[in-house]
Amino acid sequence: MLKIIAAGYILAASTLALGAATLESSAGSVRMVVELGPSPIERVEIKVDGQWVPALFSAQAATRVVTLGTPNTPHSCVLQTEDVIPNGILLRGDCGIGKFEQRIHLTPEPDELNVTVRFMPESGVRINSVEDRYDFAPGRRAADDPEGPVDFVWSQNIKNEADDDIPSWSFKSPVVMLQQGPVFAALMPKLSERLSVPLALDLDVTSQKLPWLAYGAIPSQPYGHSYFRRSTTGEPKVIETSTPVGQEGVIEYRYSIVASQQPSKLGYRRAVRLLWQQQGREELLSSYDAQRNVTRPWLVTFQDWSTDTWLRYADEVYRGFPCGSKQCGTLASFRNPGGHWEQQTGPDAWFNPWFETLRTAYGWYLYGRRTDNADIQHKAESVLNLVLSSPRDGGAFSTIYLVDSKQWLHSDGWAGYGDDYHAFGMSWTGYWMLKWGKDLTPDREQEIVAFLRPFGDFLVKQQLASGVIPAWYDSDLKPREEFRDFNAETAASGLFLASLAEATGDHDYLAAARKTMDFVTREVLPRQRWFDFETFLSCARKPFDFYDPWTAQYPQNNLSQIQAAAAYLKLYQITKEQEYLTTGTHVLDYLLLTQQVWNNPAFSPKLVGGFTTQNTDAEWSDAREAYAAVLLWHYYQATGNQEYLERAVGAARSTFAIAPWENWAHTGFTDESGALTGFHWGPGSGMTSVEMMHPMLGDAYIDLSNDAGVCFNACSIRDLRIRGDHIFFNLDAVSSLGKINIHFAGANEAATYQIIWNGNQSDMIAGKSIVQNGFAVSLTTDKKK
């Protein structure tokens, strides 16, 4: 073998007649082995405990082609030649109906190979799809194994039919992954603004002898709510400018292979890091105007949104009314509680997992306090008065109020069981009641705790031996069979019980909270069975026993993931037990697979940082991103992980691009707003997160101790360098922002600093001053003292 060192990488090319090549990273952790001859093969191998083991392979060639009219007869391609190129190898082959090239390059990452495929069909041949497919070498267990056929599998969407795929419309965090033992493998599309080619990911675990992963130029078509299948009539777009004379057109796509030894079931965390490092971070930096509204472009800064949300919109939906000796109020959703959308409804108050009026009122109160507006604070507190007037039954309480009829309803009758009490809704409301008492109205904390103790006792009593807390209770307070013995939304009750334990010091509540999260750790995490009410009862309805037998995945929804990550963090904060923080970061990183890492050019708004919902639906930038933003911010504070802060900023901004709608492209492929809107699942929830985060982050935030910074409000910070007492950076911002208030952490208060930005510089400033007061810069002035 001839070994060549090129740019820090090892290239080995055989001089044997049959031909062989090995492309190996300088770190010695991944390599591509190519063998030609009668039985050519491409094989990706990784180092596991010092030994090379196969992760992925393709016999003949990875590339396969389907022509129009013969969807069930793929043309397998055959490798013919290989050549060494700078930092890589060039493979060429024949597919019978055209030629292909596969350029494989090493990258600075120790476990990543970049692949570019070009297919040139013969004249007169009409192509349906071209893709690269790799078998997963470790194989699978028996299909009926309770642990599942593989240790880990993930795709953005799961399958309702065998030919379903994940099209570019669904590329939020685009990757497909498999792991068995320590062997982790993934395919990650290389995204660009030139996304005219129909592209899709695919995977299958059970249908063939081995599981496989695929990516390529695959046309797709939508059906149902919301699935996508391979289109038998579609055609890939061609790159006209690269088409040789006499050929129909060049079809091209790019992706990376990520393969390495990873901790059991946790290889996805490697993909999460790469998705942000390679795509999300730069996309966020380039999207400093991400808050600009797609239909009202004059709304862009948080100052713009604060005025529009808290003064205009809140005033439109606020209703005040007497309740006993107090003044009650609501920020109405005008939402039919039975899901009869064609029927108009009057003002209402919702205290449920989606429309948490008390959370939005919390943000409104923060705004009133920040602006010294006593009237707004009084109105916001009237929402607390309302929920404290909810009728209770054995600790359970109603969570929907109809103002005109003065009627309390137990819970949502559309995405739930309207006559029953919902533990998730009561727990989430109870959590925010405790936040009110601790943060805003400490003089009322005992009143709040007195209201909530019976509910806490109710949950402790209802908790099953497994640790799960049943989700729904009838009028006799008996658990409903659905969601009784297994549900992931039990994490919401765990978060509430831990918070109640923190407020009261009652160890029974803490013990119950521990049991709930032990249940989640033991029963939910191994197969990622994130079953909550939205998984089955919202718009993407499905049977309770729905399962994807092709990819071996369960339906899942990320509302319960958000609650679980928050509950683990709360238990860590109370107990200081590291295991809770560790498990919490595992859940958080899994949640981040539903965060959007780019601005898909198929859609008009800026979408980077937003969140989708579940693996059987397809919307972009759903309003739950406001919850995720605060969660990520809290995890940044707990871990110091800069990526979590950047992702928090992206999530906090993303609601505003599409407001007032609850999401964008609800069906996943049409460039249009979602069908519904509401104050609490849109601008109200989004601005509440901003009000919570802004006191720390300002318009921009720099942590001198970590040499890290991020822009929060309609700006981007680049090229940050800390050189002793000099702080260098460049800023981009929307012109309407004016002065940018930068908050600092990690400064030596006894020192002095000079700030240099965009070629401007300050005088020397006391460290104590920038810590306490921040520093305001302008992009138009030469100097700021």
- Structural class, please? alpha+beta
CATH A-level architecture of the largest domain = Alpha/alpha barrel
User: Using DSSP, what is the number of strands?
Assistant: 40
Estimate nothing, just give the exact number of structural domains: 3
Rg to the nearest angstrom? 28 Å
What is the highest CATH level, the class of the largest domain? Mainly Alpha
Q: How is the biggest beta sheet arranged? A: 12 strands, antiparallel
Output the CATH topology of the largest domain.
Glycosyltransferase
Question: Shape, please?
Answer: globular
Q: Beta-strand percentage?
A: 25-35%
Number of helices: 15
Poorly predicted segments? 1-9, 13-17, 781-785
Q: Report the span from N to C terminus.
A: 66 Å
Helicity, in percent? 25-40%
Mean pLDDT: 94
Q: Describe it for me?
A:
The model is unreliable at 1-9, 13-17 and 781-785 (pLDDT under 50). Strand 37 and strand 38 form a beta hairpin. The termini are far apart. This protein folds into three domains: 34-265, Beta-galactosidase, Chain A, domain 5, CATH 2.70.98; 302-697, Glycosyltransferase (Alpha/alpha barrel), CATH 1.50.10; 701-777, no CATH class. The radius of gyration is 28 Å and the shape is globular. Strands 1, 2, 3, 4, 5, 6, 7, 8, 13, 15, 18 and 19 form a twelve-stranded antiparallel beta sheet that branches. It has an eight-stranded antiparallel beta sheet with strand order 9-10-11-12-22-17-16-14, with helices on one face. Strands 34, 35, 37, 38 and 39 form a five-stranded mixed beta sheet that branches. By secondary structure, the chain is of the alpha+beta class. It is built from 15 helices and 40 strands.
